[in-house]
Amino acid sequence: MLRRHFLVTSAVAAFAVGVASHISLAADSADAVVQAYLAAWNAHDSAKAASFFADNVVYYDASVGKPIEGRDAAKTAVIDNFLTAVPDAVWTIKGQPVVQGDRVAFEWEFAGNNTGPWGDGTKATGKHFAFTGASVFSVKDGKIVTQNDYYDALGLYKQLGLM
User: Which of 1, 15, 64, 98 shows the smallest number of beta carbons within 10 Å?
Assistant: First the structure.
């Protein structure tokens, strides 16, 4: 009787561990990580957004052409820069993300009102803007290791009256 009880208890425990591991893996899937990252941006929480970056993340903005390396540098140069300049920013995925293993890609729209200064010293214009782009992410061990952004920088600058 004790042996049967032990076997049943062991089987239930193994099943519970397996389910918990699967749930944990699902929560750390590339798509789930990127969705949570966007949610942090839209909550205007730069520290939370940056927490989804790996320590050695590489952020690439095609309009700039030079990668930014490291979590702190990416937080300051990208997340803090945009959320300071556009405190009401809304980053919206258009359609469904394309997910392939540890990679996630999607088209998006970024919109808001430029009421704060930009990191490069450009003063706020007070203008509303909305521009589109696409991002490609790589996720490893539940953290974003690369983010590559491709967007209409010229359209953004024109909307802000900077060109």
Answer: 1
